[in-house]
Amino acid sequence: MPERWCTVTTTDAEGRRHSVDVQAASTFDAAHIYLTHAKAQPGAGIPPLTLATVFEVVIGGKVHTVAGAALQRWIIKERSERKGPRGLLFSRRATLD
Asked: Structural domain tally of the chain?
């Protein structure tokens, strides 16, 4: 699947929304890139992400939700299936705590 631009958003405990535009191949890939960005830049103001976090991914005007627990399962599955250089790069991305 080709990569497309999308916006990933999470909401903190006070109801503030935090969004990042990413280029991703799927909704789960978009949420994973957002997670990696948030962990790489802790000063960006994105709240801590957990298994309970719900990611909203907007692609082409449609809103998709990705639950944190489902994202974690997807990351683990992809890490076991991806091989070669792309698998190595994927394994370096962050996971949920």
From this structure: 1
